[in-house]
Amino acid sequence: MFKAVEKNRIVESNTKFTDNLNRDYEYFLERISRLNINENLLKKKISKFNLALPSWGVGTGGTRFGRFPGIAEPRNIFEKIEDCAVVNDLIGITSSVSPHFPWDNVKNYKELKDHAANYGLKFDVVNSNTFQDQANHKHSYKFGSLTNSDQSIRQKAVELNIDCINKGITLGSKGLTVWLADGGNFPGQQNFSRTLSWYMDSMQTIYKSLPDDWKILLEHKPYEPAFYSTVINDWGTSYICAKELGEKAMCLVDLGHHLPNTNIEMIVSRLIDLKKLGGFHFNDSKFGDDDLDSGSIDPYELFLIFNELTSASELNKFTNISYMIDQSHNVTDPIESLIQSANEIITAYVKSLLVDQKKLKSLQEKNDVIGASMILKEAYSIDVSAIIKKIRYENHNAIEPIYTYRQLNYRQQKSKIRFQNKPSLPGIV
C-alpha cells in the first residue's frame, strides 16, 4: 500500500503537539466524567465515522464569473485520488471518494479501483453530470436533460446515468446520486406537470438498472441555474418521487440546497421518520448554494443536524446514510479546505454524542423550553478537539493536520510533475 504522506513526516510533526494534547485530553476526560459519558464507548462511536471526499473537491472550483487555478491541481482522477489520499492520511476519516462522470471517465475502471486501493481508499456513491454539455456531444442539455421536451435527449441522459451505474459497479460503489439543473428561467417556458412526468419516466428507467444492493439518491435544489422554476426544487418533491420509485430510492440533503433560513435539521428529522434519508452533501452557505467549507458560517446548525441524526441512531431509526463533503474552492487550497471541513463535521458529530438524549426528551415533554435549550448548548460548548486529536494520534494521523500539510510543501513538490494551470474562461467548473 502507498502512503501519500510519509509516516515519519506525520510522526515528526506530532511530536510538537503531544504534550499539549495529553494535558488537554486529561481535562476533556474530567469534563465528560461529569456527564457520565464512557470514554471507550465514545471513542468507539467516533472511530466508526467516515466521510466521502468529492473527486472534484481537490481541484479549484469557481463561480459563474471566474476561476483562479492553483498550483499543481490534479489533471485527472488518478491525481485526484493522490490528493484525496493526502487528506485521509492526515485526518483519517475520509477513506472513500465519490467520483463524478463524465468528468472522471477513464479507459480502465479496474485499474482506477486498484489505484485507489493502493492508497487505502475505496469508492463511495457515483455522481452523474447532465447539467453541462461535454466536448463532442451531439445533443445539448441547454433546455434540460431527464426532463427535456426532446425524447431523444431524455434518452441520452438516461443512458449516461445507467453508464454511471455500470462504472460504479466496477469501482465497488453502491449508489448513484442524481442532481438536475433542469428547470425554467421564464414563466411559460415549461409545463410543470409535464416536466415532472418526464422526470419520473426517466428515473424509473434508471431505477430498473440498479443492482439489488444499490440505492439511488435524489438531490433537490430550490434554484440555480434555473431561477424561475426547478423540477426537483424541494425535499417534498424529492420525497414524493423517491416514494414512487421504490425502496432503493432515497433523498439526499445538500446543506446549501435550501432557501435562506430554512430549518434543515427539521427536514432531516422528517426524512428520517419517513425512512427516506439516504445521504448528505456537507457544505455551508450564506445566501444559497455557496459551497463554502462546512461549519464556516453556521457551525451550530451543523451540530443541530447531527443531534437529529444521533437521536435517531440511538433509536435505530436508520442505517446506511452516505456522508460526503461537497464544496468548491476558489480562494483556498482545496486540500486545506477539505481538511477543515472534515474536522468541522466530525466536531459537530462528537458534540452531538454528548447530548443527554433521555434528559432532553424529558425536558421536552415537560415543556421546559430553557432547560431543553440548555442541554443542547451545554454539549455544544464543550471543546471536543482533544478526543478527535487523540484518536488521530492513536491511528497514526496528524494531530494538527493543516500544520502538518503545510510542512510537506505538497503543492511545490507536485508542481514539478503537474503542469502549471492557466486561468480559465468564466464559468462554473
What would CATH call the homologous superfamily?
Divalent-metal-dependent TIM barrel enzymes
Strand content: 5-15%
Q: Total helix count?
A: 16
Arithmetic mean pLDDT: 95
Q: Which residues sit in consecutive blocks of at least 5 with pLDDT less than 50?
A: 423-429
Which CATH first-tier class would you pick? Alpha Beta
Largest sheet: 7 strands, parallel
Number of strands: 12
Order of helices and strands: HHHEHEEHEEHEEHEEHEHEHEHHHHHH
The CATH architecture comes to Alpha-Beta Barrel
The outline comes out as globular
Radius of gyration: 22 Å
Specify the structural class: alpha/beta
Q: What gap, in angstroms, lies between the N and C termini?
A: 32 Å
Percentage of residues assigned to helices = 40-55%
Strand ordering within the main sheet? 3-5-6-8-10-11-12
Number of domains: 1
CATH topology: TIM Barrel
Q: What does this protein structure show overall?
A:
Residues 423-429 have low confidence and may be disordered. Helix 1 crosses helix 15 and helix 2 packs across helix 14 (385-394). It is built from 16 helices and 12 strands. 46% of the residues lie in helices and 10% in strands. With 429 residues, the chain is an alpha/beta fold. It has one domain: TIM Barrel (Alpha-Beta Barrel). Helix 4 (77-91) links the parallel strand 1 (52-54) and strand 2 (96-98). It has helices at 7-14, 18-33, 39-47, 77-91, 109-118, 151-171, 192-208, 235-245, 264-273, 299-314, 334-353, 357-365, 369-381, 385-394, 401-408, 410-414, and strands spanning 52-54, 96-98, 100-101, 122-123, 126-128, 175-179, 183-184, 215-219, 229-230, 249-254, 277-282, 322-325. Strands 3-5-6-8-10-11-12 form a 7-stranded parallel β-sheet. A 3-stranded parallel β-sheet has the order 1-2-4, covered by helices on one side. It starts with 6 loop residues before the first helix and ends in a 15-residue tail after the last helix.
